[in-house]
């Protein structure tokens, strides 16, 4: 019984640590999205979606607008309405 409890506690600890690290965002994405969204009208929304796209695609196009051909994954992500997801 103690062994099972210990295994469950370890699994819970490891999964929560993993979850926190993935939700924190990477410094790569944070810095790239800060540049990408620097001129956005709605900063928090731009940073949110840029961060989601960057974490999935591991790249962010250069500049504040356009250049999406530099990152096809980022360019091709769509929202539920079929519109581009990534700023």
From TrEMBL:
Keyword Ribonucleoprotein: no
One GO-annotated biological process of the protein: gibberellic acid mediated signaling pathway
InterPro entries associated with the record: GASA
Record Pfam families: GASA
Signal sequence residues: 1-24
Domain of life of the native organism: Eukaryota
Keywords attached to this entry: Gibberellin signaling pathway, Signal
Similarity section: Belongs to the GASA family.
PANTHER family: EXTENSIN, PROLINE-RICH PROTEIN, GIBBERELLIN-REGULATED PROTEIN 10
Record protein name field: Uncharacterized protein
